[in-house]
Amino acid sequence: VSTQSTWDLNQLKNTDEVGNVLPQVFNVESSEEKGELARLHVFVGAIAISDLVKTTLGPKGMDKILHSIGEHESKITITNDGATILKSIHVSNPAAKILIDISKTQDDMVGDGTTTVAVLAGELLRQAEKLVQAKIHPQTIIEGFRIARDAAKAKLLSLAMESSDDPAKQREDLIKVAMTTLSSKLLFHEKEFFAKLAVDAVLRLGTTSKTPSANLDLIKIIKKPGGSLKDSYLDEGFVLEKAISVGCPRRKENPKILIANSPMDYDKIKIQGSKVKADSMEKVAEIEAAEKSKMKDKVDKILAHKPDIFINRQLIYNYPEQLMAEKGVMVIEHADFDGTERLAAVLGAEILSTFDAPTTSRLGSCKLVEEIMIGEDKFIKFSGCAGNKACTIVPVSYTHLTLPTILLVQISVVAVSLKKK
Fold first, then answer.
1. Does residue 109 contact residue 55 with C-beta atoms inside 8 Å?
2. DSSP H helix total and E strand total for the chain
3. What average pLDDT does the segment 40-51 reach?
4. H-run or E-run covering 309
5. Shortest CA distance to 319 belongs to which of 294, 355, 336, 282?
6. Model pLDDT for residues 89-115, shown as the tens digit of each residue
7. DSSP designation for 244
8. Of 91, 257, 269, 383, which is most buried with the most CB atoms under 10 A?
9. pTM above 0.90, yes or no
């Protein structure tokens, strides 16, 4: 009897208003919403996301305390950045997910305005809900939104100003644009100071409205604790957060720089489970000698390129490091993926994995490479790089943990502002 009643209930679910049986299209466990209920679901989800970040908007916006609870760690974040907040929450409402995706797209394309787009979209849907309740068709509402979008765009274009012919006026305008990005950030009281840092860094790239292709990878940001915010500065040249190997020169002028991504430990057999059996210590010594000989051949191929500096993404063992140091080559190891890619772009070099063609390989160059101290840490500075465009911003603060992120937002906004529409 219970089985029959369950079958009748499923039949009732799959019938139309007059009792005709409808085909089962969706999974039995899935749910379907139609008409007014579906629209209400969309409005509620999107408006809830908008209201969540609305209080963080503007100069008087408040911060949110985000407490993530996981199996292994509990993390607390204090922020008023819309993208950070929306990335940290998990939602199941489809409309809410779309608003979060819109905010992420805004962050990727411009770098700022992530809260604004979510709030604006939520308010538009709030007004659309009233129009739907007034029995206005959704397509009519959408058409009205499109007309309003075109009118707003035309008005903005009419207010736009072109100042590329006057560098001083252009710099002043860009500083004003950069300052607006800090209106709701923690650095509000020092916004002019950091706006000038961001603008000067972008203008060093040779970016104008006529040549807007800016490679922002040439700008490095290194956060250092200690001091006040106004101790932050813009330094010419590219800074690598690594140390020079022991026994190598600490300064090189007009060097040839070889950038590599190659294993520089002893070449071992890479097949898992393989073993080498030796019946005496003499045999072990022969194996070690063979390994050293193979590594020496590799080092000789590298030295055939006649580099003054060798930078490798991977680990460099003591033996090859010693061989190159004896030839006066500065050795830098573990320059990770981000470091090698940035250096290749800054120095005009290619990343080598084999060293059999010294005549066709392209080495990098700059005017000076030296070891410097920033705070209590050692870094490697590359000055006079190709085009003299690379630079490093060193923000100094005890408390502002999001300082590098805020500076990246400023730099992205300034770079986008220079693009000719």
1. no
2. 12, 14
3. 86
4. strand 309-312
5. 294
6. 888 888 888 888 888 888 878 777 888
7. P
8. 257
9. no
